[in-house]
Write a structure and sequence with these properties.
The structure holds 2 protein chains of 2 kinds.
Chain A: E1 5-12, E2 22-29, E3 34-38, H1 45-53, E4 60-65, E5 68-69, H2 75-85, E6 86-89, H3 101-110, H4 118-130, H5 145-157, E7 163-167, H6 175-191, E8 195-199, H7 203-207, E9 211-216, E10 219-223
Parallel strand pairs in A: 3-8, 3-9, 6-7, 7-8
Antiparallel strand pairs in A: 1-2, 1-4, 4-5, 9-10
Helix pairs in contact in A: 3-4, 3-5, 5-6
Chain B: H1 4-13, H2 15-49, E1 55-58, H3 63-71, H4 83-90, E2 95-107, E3 110-115, H5 117-123, E4 130-131, E5 139-142, E6 153-154, E7 157-158, E8 178-183, E9 195-198, H6 199-205, E10 232-237, H7 240-251, E11 256-258, H8 260-303, H9 305-313, H10 318-359, H11 373-385, H12 387-395
Parallel strand pairs in B: 3-9, 5-8
Antiparallel strand pairs in B: 1-10, 1-11, 2-3, 2-7, 2-10, 4-8, 5-9, 6-8
The chains are: A alpha/beta, B alpha+beta.
Chain lengths: 224, 402
């Protein structure tokens, strides 16, 4: 089941900067939907995602996912919460080169499990199949860029996160790969009933989201 | 958590760099192990070589020369113990064996030593490999490694030649020609290459005696005009008290009398300081290797900032990141130590073989537990030092994630 997001009086500033990067009075996202966020470079989109994922802590305000206020959790608890609830997709995939496709997908499980149970393994394999990768043992260094990003999406979805955060997932892909990647991201998060927040400049990506927002001057404004 | 798959993957992804680091550690480990083993083996081997020689008596000169010439059969010019003194020594009380030795000739590239039958029997306490001791002039007993066969004849030349001269050039002692009648058991010392002949043969060849015995017998007691000088007289005292009394008495007689074991201890002390220098070099190498590993670890860490941040962003606990970095360094170190142990085995075998050939006595090629203290130290220091970059990595915030 996807998580509901409620931001309250969120402010976050970089050290030495005069204006805060983020200054959001209130923002709500319903569970299970897909939200596209766009904005100029340097507008703070990545910082917003980091704040939502508990990677950075805002100076003030709350980041509430369902009952959890991520901003108030201790560092260790935020790690655990993120592991449990968030799947991350990066612009540059950030797969681990020595691991196979399957090894990369299974990696998040290694953070708190010694062995991999049969259910998890079969979920990983089925995610890879859905992602269109027929050879799960293939080293990721031999995959195309589109394939790598799809492996990264499978990795983000492995633990059935309630929240999927994607930062420019198509920015380094060609048009065709971008389309199949977005298809996968949208259909799989929907199938998993997760809440998807995707930062993108890609109009094609934004068009396919349930709602669209622009981040400017630290504030979010709804787009048509 | 289970960081092992990631550790294995990282090492696989950077296998050549990893191999170089492991080799670096391996070389340092091998260096320290070999230095320690070689020094110990040199002590053991040389001490064993002196076992057959309790008390050495020589003309006034260098104690070290006397020991090297007698125990290791190194070619050295020794002042002779004159005939009169040799005869007197033969009659000394409190001795189990008195054997004059005459060095200086060689045959077939091996040193020829003139001595008496009793000394052959002393060296062959455990029995001859084949044949018997010499019983008359013209007979010889050879060490275990001498190439001459039983019954084979050879002619000694003056001086020690390790290389056979073409055409048999050199000053031949034809009257000294001998045939081999026996072979000594292996001692693992220079004496395995020695050819033992009756000392009378050497005396006559070098015109050290005027008279000759008409009965054809060899060995003591000798008539006054049929006894020559000796390079050294080996004495086996009857007891410990006799040993010290004899040494004291002989020293007063203008002779050099010494226990080779004692002289060797002095040499060991010199060797010991050489060993300390070598050990210092080895420790220096250890320190350099640890510093190098530290730098490599830090460089690798800087290169992997992003990777670590991604791990943290994905929710990896700090402990997981710590273990990944720590284990990778520890695995490299351990691989290096294993590699170094193998290298040390090989190097020790090569060095001891080479040294046995050039020193003239067998160095026992063994590694003891103590030889690995340096390796253990590297590993231990490595385990602790590896925690530093690992801690850096673990404390790196996830906010560096792109």
């Amino acid at each position: 089941m996807g998580a509901t997001l409620a931001l309250r009086n969120l402010t976050l500033a970089f050290r030495g900067a005069t204006a805060p990067v983020l200054d959001i009075d209130a923002w709500n996202v319903a569970a299970g939907g897909s939200v596209g966020i766009t904005g100029a470079s340097g507008a703070g989109k990545t910082t917003l995602l980091h704040a939502l994922a508990g990677i950075v802590v805002p100076e003030s305000g709350g980041v509430c996912w369902d009952e959890d206020d991520v901003a108030t959790l201790s560092s260790g608890a935020r790690d655990a919460w993120r592991r449990q609830h968030v799947g991350l997709v990066f612009q540059d995939f950030h797969l681990f080169p020595g691991l196979s496709a399957l090894g990369n997908v299974l990696l998040p499980m290694r953070f708190d499990h010694w062995g991999i149970d049969a259910d998890t393994r079969s979920r990983a394999l089925s995610l890879l199949r859905t992602a269109g990768l027929s050879a799960p043992d293939q080293p990721v260094t031999t995959l195309s860029r589109g394939e790598r990003q799809r492996v990264a999406i499978a990795r983000a979805l492995l633990r059935r996160p309630a929240i999927v955060l994607a930062d420019e997932p198509t920015a380094s892909l060609d048009t065709d790969s971008a389309r199949t990647t977005v298809d996968l991201l949208l259909t799989e998060t929907q199938a998993a009933d997760a809440t998807l927040l995707v930062v993108s400049h890609d109009a094609g990506v934004l068009a396919r989201c349930d709602s669209r927002w622009r981040l400017a001057d630290g504030r979010l404004a709804a787009l048509p | 958590m289970n960081p092992l798959p990631l550790v294995a993957a990282d090492l696989r992804a950077s296998r050549w760099g990893a191999l170089v680091v492991a080799l670096l550690v391996g070389c340092a480990v091998a260096l320290s192990v070999v230095v320690s083993a070689a020094e110990r083996s040199l002590r053991a081997g040389s001490a064993r070589a002196a076992d057959d020689f309790d008390l050495l008596v020589g003309g006034p000169g260098s104690a070290t020369d006397l020991v090297l010439a007698t125990v290791y059969l190194r070619p050295t010019d020794l002042p002779l113990v004159d005939a009169k003194r040799v005869k007197r020594l033969m009659e000394a009380k409190g001795t189990a064996l008195v054997a004059p030795l005459a060095f200086g000739d060689s045959a077939d590239g091996q040193p020829v030593v003139g001595t008496i039958e009793a000394f052959v029997r002393h060296l062959a306490r455990r029995g001859m490999i084949e044949g018997r001791a010499f019983a008359r002039e013209g007979e010889a007993v050879v060490g275990a490694d001498v190439r001459l066969r039983l019954g084979e004849r050879a002619v000694p030349v003056h001086g020690q030649q390790t290389v056979k001269l073409p055409g048999g050039a050199g000053h031949h002692h034809d009257e000294e020609a001998f045939s081999v009648v026996g072979r000594l058991p292996r001692s693992g010392t220079a004496w395995d290459h020695a050819i033992l002949v009756p000392i009378e043969t050497v005396w006559e060849a070098h015109h050290l005696v005027l008279g000759e015995r008409d009965d054809g017998r060899i060995g003591p007691p000798w008539p006054d005009d049929a006894v020559g000088g000796a390079s050294v007289v080996v004495i086996k005292p009857a007891g410990v008290a006799d040993a010290y009394r004899l040494r004291q008495a002989l020293k007063g007689d203008g002779l050099l009398a010494l226990f080779p074991a004692e002289t060797l201890i002095e040499l060991y002390e010199a060797l010991g300081s050489a060993g300390a220098v070598a050990a210092a070099i080895a420790h220096g190498a250890h320190a350099l290797v640890l510093i190098a590993i530290g730098l490599v670890a830090m460089a690798a860490l800087a290169a992997r900032r992003t990777q670590i941040a991604v791990l943290r962003a994905m929710g990896a606990p700090a402990g997981f990141v710590f273990l990944v970095v720590w284990l990778e360094i520890v695995v490299l170190l351990a691989a290096g130590v294993v590699l170094g142990t193998g290298l040390a085995w090989a190097a020790t075998a090569v060095i001891t073989t080479w040294a046995s050939a050039s020193l003239g006595f067998v160095l026992p090629a063994s590694l003891s537990f103590g030889d690995f203290s340096g390796a253990g130290l590297i590993l231990l220091a490595g385990l602790l030092l590896a925690a530093l970059p690992a801690l850096f990595a673990a404390r790196q915030p996830a906010a560096n994630a792109p």
